[in-house]
């Protein structure tokens, strides 16, 4: 199960992008998401795609790896394409079958949506490919710092995500073990009809949840015995440092946002 | 042979029974030592109940000197893990007094005590906090508010010492059980505690990894820098230690040298332990009048059958 989950895994090539401040990468990612949403025409989308490929090339991670990250979503993308084709009407009729007809506007909207989705997924994969979960988490904590005044505790949130990131693979492995144990007793999830599958899922969920609680208890003991107290002062082994490069990186993304909006209007 | 004290009528445990304490065990003795503050661990009449009524730990008195290596044995569910969790304040004793390294455990001193006590738990998976070995080692050190440079140098030093320098950037899921426990121990050692408590730390490891872990403990003991307290069911580990505490239903029932424990069938049954074959053989030979290794001749220059057994299946005694 873990092998298929490519997103969330660091691929260390030691490139410039890897060394950027995680806060810069997170900000850039937000700007990128905004650009993807704003891009509503072929020129805007294609320029955004070209830009994305350029940044991906900078990471020195093969482009195929990014595509692989988007692969689990291919069914969803197909679904979006079909829905858009069916729902959006206008332009010339490309295909007609009885009362139903596929319009050019529908096809275009569908392809736009799919491209947008693919770009977003591939590009967010870049964030996790180039940043270790710990670093990412640190970045998140840094980004949330201004919200501390509104009663949000950045430390608490980042600890939570940190532990989640750490234990997701372990819990996935465990779910698989339990599934195998159930299959070995004749309850193979793969061979069951959908309705039964849903029922089996609860049989899987209960032991996984129970064991997650047990893990949590052990983990708390381990953290506490290492002197952890929520809110107690801590130092950072690898403090974040913002440099000129990070500013430039974010600036480039601001520019691409503006470009997309500009192309969209003219 | 059986020098194990059955519980005295006043309910005191058997502190001071064997090697380390020649004086009569009990409250006064521990209280006196408490005043002296020379010991690493001092428990005076400690009781604890999870539900507030039924005592899971009953009137435990215990003193462990600095630099000692003590093992804690007993059947599952007898309160071993509960007892050690009392020692660093993970659980709060209902009554009695606990002092670690001369500091009395109170709500205000829990932080100090936790810096003195390093704890390694049974399941290597569930005590890993960081997403990499390095992050995990840094976790405790960051909590101690050390500077980045100091943290870095400690991580390098202790990773090298435990042979995990090459694994620093690995996710815990990519490590073997033995490597995980090494990493856990490294994370604890980096905090430079005085007392190291191992809660069945080697029980989930394979034979080879367990041997390596034991070797590490031996090394640490030789350094005389750490006081070691380990919960174990492993005869090898018990044999390597200086002193064994046996627990039964929340009480300390015996405090003796490993050799004495191995000769005491009742206590072994109480701990649900079985001796390794070589020890059983040696003891059977001894019963039949073939003398054990003579004192002062551990290498066994004379041709004693028991020596022969020991030589063939080397069994390391710490004494």
UniProtKB/TrEMBL annotation, chain A:
One of the Pfam families matching this protein, by short name: CbiQ
Record bears the keyword Magnesium: no
A GO cellular-component term linked to this record: plasma membrane
Swiss-Prot/TrEMBL keywords: Membrane, Transmembrane, Transmembrane helix
Transmembrane segments annotated in the record for this chain: 45-63, 75-97, 109-129, 247-265
Entries under InterPro entries matching the protein: ABC/ECF_trnsptr_transmembrane
Membrane topology annotation: Multi-pass membrane protein
Keyword field contains Transmembrane helix: yes
Protein name: Energy-coupling factor transporter transmembrane protein EcfT
Organism the protein comes from: Paenibacillus dendrobii
């Amino acid at each position: 199960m873990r092998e298929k989950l490519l997103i969330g895994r660091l691929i260390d090539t030691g490139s410039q992008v890897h060394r950027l401040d995680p806060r810069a990468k997170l900000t850039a990612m937000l700007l990128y998401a905004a650009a993807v949403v704003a891009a509503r025409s072929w020129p805007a989308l294609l320029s955004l795609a070209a830009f994305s490929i350029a940044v991906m090339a900078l990471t020195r991670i093969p482009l195929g790896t990014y595509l692989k990250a988007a692969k689990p979503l291919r069914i969803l993308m197909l679904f979006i394409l079909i829905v858009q084709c069916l729902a959006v009407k206008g332009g010339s009729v490309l295909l007609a079958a009885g009362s139903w007809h596929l319009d050019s506007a529908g096809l275009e909207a569908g392809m736009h949506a799919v491209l947008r989705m693919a770009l977003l997924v591939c590009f967010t994969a870049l964030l996790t490919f180039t940043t270790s979960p710990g670093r990412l988490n640190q970045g998140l904590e840094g980004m949330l710092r201004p919200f501390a005044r509104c009663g949000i505790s950045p430390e608490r949130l980042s600890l939570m995500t940190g532990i989640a990131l750490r234990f997701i693979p372990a819990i996935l492995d465990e779910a698989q073990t339990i599934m195998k144990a159930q299959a070995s007793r004749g309850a193979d999830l793969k061979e069951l009809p959908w309705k039964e599958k849903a029922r089996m899922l609860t049989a899987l969920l209960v032991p996984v949840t129970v064991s997650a609680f047990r893990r949590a208890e052990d983990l708390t003991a381990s953290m506490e015995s290492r002197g952890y107290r929520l809110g107690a002062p801590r130092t950072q082994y690898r403090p974040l440092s913002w440099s000129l490069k990070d500013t430039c990186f974010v600036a480039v993304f601001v520019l691409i946002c503006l470009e997309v909006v500009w192309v969209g209007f003219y | 042979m059986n020098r194990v004290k059955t519980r005295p009528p006043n309910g005191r445990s058997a502190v001071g029974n064997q090697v380390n304490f020649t004086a009569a065990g009990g409250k006064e003795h521990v209280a006196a030592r408490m005043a002296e503050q020379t010991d690493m661990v001092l428990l005076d009449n400690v009781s604890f109940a999870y539900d507030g009524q039924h005592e899971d730990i009953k009137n435990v008195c215990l003193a462990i000197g600095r630099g000692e290596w003590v093992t804690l044995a007993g059947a599952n569910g007898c309160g071993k893990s509960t007892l050690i969790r009392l020692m660093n304040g993970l659980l709060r004793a209902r009554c009695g007094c606990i002092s670690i390294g001369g500091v009395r455990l109170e709500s205000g001193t829990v932080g100090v005590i936790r810096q003195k006590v390093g704890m390694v738990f049974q399941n290597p998976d569930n005590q890993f906090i960081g997403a990499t070995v390095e992050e995990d080692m840094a976790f405790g050190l960051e909590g101690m508010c050390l500077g980045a440079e100091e943290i870095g140098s400690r991580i390098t030093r202790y990773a090298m010492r435990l042979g995990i320098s090459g694994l620093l950037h690995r996710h815990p899921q990519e490590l073997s059980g033995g490597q995980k426990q090494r990493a856990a121990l490294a994370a604890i050692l980096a905090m430079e505690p005085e007392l190291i408590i191992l809660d069945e730390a080697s029980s989930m490891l394979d034979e080879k990894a367990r041997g390596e872990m034991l070797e590490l403990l031996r090394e640490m003991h030789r350094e005389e820098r750490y006081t070691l307290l380990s919960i174990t069911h492993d005869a090898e580990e018990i044999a390597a230690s200086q002193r064994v505490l046996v627990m039964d239903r929340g009480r300390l029932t015996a405090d003796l040298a490993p050799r004495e424990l191995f000769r005491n069938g009742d206590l072994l049954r109480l701990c649900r332990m079985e001796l390794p074959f070589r020890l059983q053989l040696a003891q059977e030979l001894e019963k039949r009048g073939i003398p054990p290794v003579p004192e002062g001749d551990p290498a066994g220059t004379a041709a004693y059958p028991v020596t022969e057994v020991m030589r063939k299946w080397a069994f390391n005694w710490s004494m």
